[in-house]
Design brief:
309 residues; alpha/beta; UDP-N-acetylmuramoyl-L-alanine:D-glutamate ligase; 10-stranded mixed sheet; 4-stranded mixed sheet; 37% helix; 27% strand
């Protein structure tokens, strides 16, 4: 089973063609939704509070997304999305504060959840400073129980998360540059950064950049992934769909060269939809044939390309 952790979930109010639609958002929840579409068993774990939290719980139940939550005193954040002729305008409300007691309760229940999972992914931002050590704490728990840990987070806590050596990491370029105060302008910058991540003990690393090529590292070997050409509608959630593809491959013990194509296909197809992370297996399979994978620099010469990490 896969555990997705969303520390900063979001209630989305979408206005489209005069209709109001509420959706449960937040990067880990998006990953869970996409994993459901790929028939991968998962559990979503999050902080939820107030009326927005109640609505999110109702929506998750309606979507058949299994979840556990820690109740909090403050209101879960929300966002207003206005869709007009496929143009999307988003206004985010401020993050909520999580107190130390709520953080400790969250952490106390995390160990058993990780123990009962094969993979744990920590996705998205953190709502407040009190939550900064939850992800490093979770990575350490995954190490203790010999589980795969994945991070797709950003902010000032990213460096501490990297220092804990998760198994897998994903970020887009903007997140890396803003979180670590570095520039990844040319290909060499990206490859050097991938080498840095490998030196920290991270086995699989992915740098995405919208429709531009994705750069990846597997045990220090570099790859460039060219995405399918699509007509973009809304890229929201494409990084989460991409990570669901990586998890899909790891959970099914697929070969790296195959599952990175599935991941790229999921991210691309997601960007053609107004809904986040609702790509079908059929769409994934069809679009994956249009993904191109290139090795960069040194080549890995092995007989059996083991996909596991």
């Amino acid at each position: 089973m896969i555990l997705t952790v969303t520390l900063n979930p979001l209630l989305e109010k979408r206005i489209h063609n005069g209709k109001e639609i509420y959706k449960a958002g937040g990067k880990g929840i998006n990953v869970s939704r996409q994993l459901n579409f790929l028939k991968i068993k998962n559990l979503a774990y999050a902080f939820l509070g107030g009326k927005n939290g109640k609505l999110i719980k109702q929506i998750l139940s309606e979507e058949n997304i299994d979840f556990k939550h820690i109740p909090i005193k403050t209101e879960t954040r929300s966002a207003l999305l206005t869709i007009d002729n496929n143009k999307i305008t988003t206004v985010f409300n401020p993050n909520n504060e999580i107190d130390e007691t709520e953080v400790e309760e969250f952490k106390s229940k995390l160990e058993k959840m990780i123990y009962n999972s094969s993979i744990v992914i920590f996705s998205g931002s953190i709502p407040s400073k009190q939550c900064e050590d939850i992800i490093p704490f979770g990575i350490e728990l995954a190490h203790q129980h010999d589980k795969i840990s994945i991070i797709d987070t950003y902010g000032t806590h990213l460096q501490k998360c990297i220092d804990m050596s998760p198994t897998v990491i994903h970020n887009n370029i903007n997140e890396i540059e803003s979180s670590l105060n570095i520039k990844l302008e040319i290909e060499k910058d990206k490859l050097d950064y991938l080498d840095y991540l490998y030196s920290k003990g991270i086995k699989l690393s992915f740098i995405t950049d919208g429709a531009n090529p994705t750069y990846a590292s597997k045990f220090g070997f570099h790859y460039k992934i060219e995405n399918p050409v699509i007509e973009e509608v809304d890229p929201t959630g494409s990084g989460d769909a991409f990570m669901a593809g990586i998890i899909y491959g790891l959970e099914k013990s697929l070969v790296f060269d195959d599952f990175v194509k599935y991941a790229a296909a999921l991210g691309a197809v997601n960007a053609t939809k107004l809904s986040a992370c609702e790509v079908t297996e059929d769409e994934m399979n069809r679009f994956s044939t249009n993904v191109k994978l290139f090795t960069l620099g040194k080549k890995m010469k092995i007989i059996n390309d083991s996909p596991t990490v």
